[in-house]
Amino acid sequence: MNEQTTHNQPTSAYDCEQARLQIGAEPRVVPTALAEHLETCEPCSAYQQQTLKLERAIEQALAVPVAPAVSAVVPMPARAVRRPRPSLTRWAMAASLVLAVTIGVLLWSARPSDALAADIVAHMAGEAASWDKSAAVPESALTFVLRKSGVDLAPGAAVTYAHSCWFRGQFVPHLVVQSASGPVTVMILPGEKVARQERFVEAPYSGIIAPVDGGAVAVLSRGQRGDVEAVLDTVLASLKTGSAG
Amino acid sequence: MIEADAGKRASQGFNRLLEELRPDLVRFAFWLARDRQVAEDVVQETLIRAWRAQTDLKDTGAVKSWLFTIARREHARLYERKRLPTVELDELVTAESAELAEQPDGEWHDLRQAILGLAEEYREPLVMQVLGGFSTQEIADEMGLTQQAVLTRLFRARHQLRDAYAASEEATDR
Fold first, then answer.
1. Domain A76-238, CATH number (from 3.40.1000, 3.30.310, 3.40.50, 1.10.3470)
2. Per-residue pLDDT tens digits for A68-122
């Protein structure tokens, strides 16, 4: 990318206008016809030098500093949470249990919360630092995060992390609340449908996904620390009706 | 067991590749979104999608453009699915410029401000070309434009940046 490249394909001769369009559009690409034009046109040659100087500056300007990733680039659970499905051979061997298996599959597919839990756990791994925050989040920041997702939460819990996370194609509030026995993560998930309150365990996380009006709430702890039930109760009591929709 | 080991090694190799490319991906997403937080979200989603779809990548030499393409689509999806709050350009440029000016390489402040101020139709192909290494034909294919239209947009983008750069150089010389 840093060197000019000359294309040898035959092209028609360039006039100054074509030459400058080509230089301005692809400063580092010099088709043969342009090279020939530059040999005989001093103003265009100077224009090319100026543009290459500008190009180096653009490359430098675009290289904004990037903070290092706070955790593994691809969270491990994202690789691990998908459980392998039983093979076809195994299904065939269990022919006598076809009916039971069918019912089982139907029950499984009726529980989208399994996949939801897996996605939540995968998301957690990318936000490992969130658990370690101890200072309370300013109310304005919490309000911003909640409003970004159209969620309204009455004040009450000690929130030490509030981030508007992109999750399953939308921004959702990702909060960490301090319970008596440790931090608990709360994700408010507008539009996610779960039939009933369900527990999940995806080591090292465990938690509960609960339906609310207009969506769902996931509350989870890490390593059995944190009072998930108490925080869930607080959140359910604090969520204003229909606010997760 | 051997297959599992080979798979693990391949996965580790792929992960290393993603780690190496992450900074460029964040920069690309930043210049598309003009917001660091949105950029981080786009990249996070991009990397997870890339990981899950890694078997689709036939040529590891093309991984960068493959990732950038995913990121670009993720960014577009973000705006399609969720109408993000509209921010006045001046406000955005001021906020980002203040942050960029605090960086040790603040000498590029004026040019960065000018890039932030470019219309999306100019900024996007420019960033795809310079950061992503896309050819004009690849940009045209990805954006659903003719190659000539892409050439024109790139020319206009640089034309607009030329003035900002000249002013910046003058200020530096003084």
1. 3.40.1000
2. 665 444 544 444 334 344 444 444 444 443 334 333 333 334 444 678 888 888 7
Q: If you search the block for the tokens 């990702």, which residue do you land on?
A: A174
As annotated, the residues of chain A forming the CATH 3.40.1000 domain(s) are: 76-238
A91: burial class by Cβ within 10 Å (0-12, 13-18, 19+)? middle
The whole-model pTM stands at 0.54
* CATH number for region B106-174: 1.10.10.10
Nearest CA in chain B to A150: B82
Residues 121-160 of B with CB under 8 A from A: 126-127, 129-131, 133, 136, 150-152, 154-155, 158-159
| CATH for B1-86 (2.40.440, 1.20.120, 3.30.70, 1.10.1740) | 1.10.1740
CB-CB under 8 Å, A57 with B19: no
A29-31 and A182-190 strand pairing: unpaired
Nearest residue on chain A to B133, judged by CA atoms? A1
What residues form DSSP beta bridges with A30? A6
The domain locations on chain B are 1-86, 106-174
Which of A43, A40, A2, A3 has its CA nearest to residue A20?
Answer: A43
